[in-house]
Amino acid sequence: MASEAIYKSGQGYWTRMISASAFGLLIAQGTYWTWSKLGSGGGDVAGYVAIGAALVFFAGLGSLVFWLLGRNPRSVDFLIATEAEMRKVNWSTRREITNSTGVVIVTMLAIAMFCFVCDRAFAWGFLQVGVLDSSVLESE
C-alpha cells in the first residue's frame, strides 16, 4: 500500500493543485473534442464509440497527470522546488508597478515624438535637396 501513496504529499501543495487544475481543464476540453469529433457520424454505434473513446482519453490522461503530479519523484521534486523558489521572490507592490508602467508609457511617447520629429526633419531636408517630391508629403 505504501507504494501507492502520493510522493511527498505534504509539500508543494499549491503548485500541484494549480497544475492539476490546468491539466484537468485541458483534459476536459480534449475529452469533449474527442467525443464531438467521433460522435458526429450519427447512429447508436457511433455514439457508443465516441463515448468509449472519450472515456479512454479521459482515463488515460488523468492517470498520466496523477502519476506526474503525485507519484513521479522527478516531477514532484521539481514542483516542490518551484514552490520554494516562488516563496523567495520579492514581489513588486501595486504602487511600484503603477509607477513603472507610467515611466514606460511616458518613455514610449517621448521616443514616438522623437521619431516623428526626425522623420519630418529628414523629409523636409530631402524635399529641400530635391530627392522628394512635395506631393509625397501631402499624401501623408
Question: Could you provide a short overview of the structure?
Answer:
By secondary structure, the chain is mainly α.
Tags for this entry?
2 domains, 140 residues, single chain, mainly alpha
Taken in chain order, the helices and strands follow as HHHHH
Shape type: flat
List how many beta strands DSSP finds.
Answer: 0
Q: Can you count the helices?
A: 5
Average of pLDDT: 88
Unreliable stretches (pLDDT < 50, length at least 5) are none
| Fraction in helix | over 70%
| Strand residue content | under 5%
Number of domains: 2
Distance between the termini: 77 Å
User: Structural class of the helix and strand makeup?
Assistant: mainly alpha
User: Could you describe the largest sheet, including whether it forms a barrel?
Assistant: none
Radius of gyration: 29 Å
Topology at a glance:
Blueprint lengths: L12 H26 L5 H28 L1 H16 L5 H36 L4 H6 L1
Helix pairs in contact: 1-2, 1-3, 2-3
What does this structure look like?
This protein is mostly helical and 140 residues long. It has 2 domains: 87 residues, no CATH class; 46 residues, no CATH class. It is flat, with a radius of gyration of 29 Å. The termini are far apart. The model has no long low-confidence stretch (mean pLDDT 88).
